[in-house]
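for the writeup, i need someone to sanity check this before i put it in the appendix. the sequnce is what the collaborator sent (i think, or maybe the updated version? ugh). structure was predicted straight from it, no edits. if anything looks off just tell me and ill rerun, i have time this weekend
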Amino acid sequence: MRVRGHRAILFFALIAALGVSAEAVGGWQPYVSAAGRFTISMPGVPDVGDKVRGRQQITWYLLRTRDCNYMLEHTDIQSGGGAYGVPFVLDRFVEGFTREEQAIDLVVRDATFAGCQARAVEFRKDDGRQVQGYILCSNGRVYLVFTFRDPGVPEQRAYFDSFRLLQ
């Protein structure tokens, strides 16, 4: 019994030493952003940064793997979408994001995601990658939760199903 335990320890030490990603051994892990007010599981730790899109200051989280990129962005807006309401805000974010990404064969539908009113968005890019995700609004913040998959890579349902808002 001790030999098996030692083999397991050596196996995981070897993986760590070689720098093999969590994805390669099936190890998804939760990522929590207190500032972003969310938690989500990913097959590794994302890079984090800020950018400006139009007049919006956006915080982004991006994990690149061999065949799929996992992206989450959030930005603060006027609470509740102001005089226009949440549907208007969601539609404007869909429009801006899909234009920036040069979406081909765009499909957008109403959805509920993480208990919030959302837009489910799917399209492909000119390089063939399939893009799928959700844009939702909660407590004065808009979230974009997306995957960019190589052709033939299955949908990453675990990523979407793990997204939770923190209060």
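Strands lie at 29-33, 38-42, 47-53, 56-64, 68-76, 104-113, 116-124, 130-138, 141-149, 164-165. The first helix runs from residue 2 to 18.
thx in advance!!
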